[in-house]
């Protein structure tokens, strides 16, 4: 519902401009809802049961949906690196649970942008900057963030 509201707000702002131009990216609400409603089984992300309680399952569902949507497209490599990042966040024992939650929230926002029809480079760059600063000092997560960022930059 929040994504639909964000899309509606963007549409309302565009209509106020009166130029008939659609600005910015929209979150693919239908595709995400369809993928999320399938079940609570994550088809792409493997997380040990001991770590699942630390991370918001709604964010995991959105990330899993983004991975599913990206399969078989030019974003497949990005989706694979997204999966790797989430799994490394969940399995990293040196990171506090609240930091893991925040890392997954930012990753979820990146995945939402990545699957939108017109992703905002400014928003994604800002989110990546946040992810890099949050993961500094944790080599496994920082390496996964770098691979995800490189996959994003290699997209057409």
Structure description:
The protein is mainly alpha-helical and 156 residues long. It is built from 8 helices and no strands. The two termini are 30 Å apart. The model has no long low-confidence stretch (mean pLDDT 82).
Largest sheet: none
What's the tally of helices? 8
Residue share in helices? 55-70%
Helix/strand order: HHHHHHHH
The count of strands amounts to 0
Sheet-strand content, in percent, reads under 5%
Separation of termini? 30 Å
- Gyration radius, to the nearest Å? 16 Å
User: Tell me, what's the shape?
Assistant: globular
Low-confidence stretches: none
How are the secondary structure elements laid out?
Layout: H1 2-17, H2 29-37, H3 49-52, H4 57-70, H5 76-91, H6 97-115, H7 121-135, H8 139-153
Helix pairs in contact: 2-4, 4-5, 4-6, 5-6, 5-8, 6-7, 7-8
Short recap of the structure:
The protein has helices at 2-17, 29-37, 49-52, 57-70, 76-91, 97-115, 121-135, 139-153.
Any key phrases for this structure?
mainly alpha, 8 helices, 156 residues
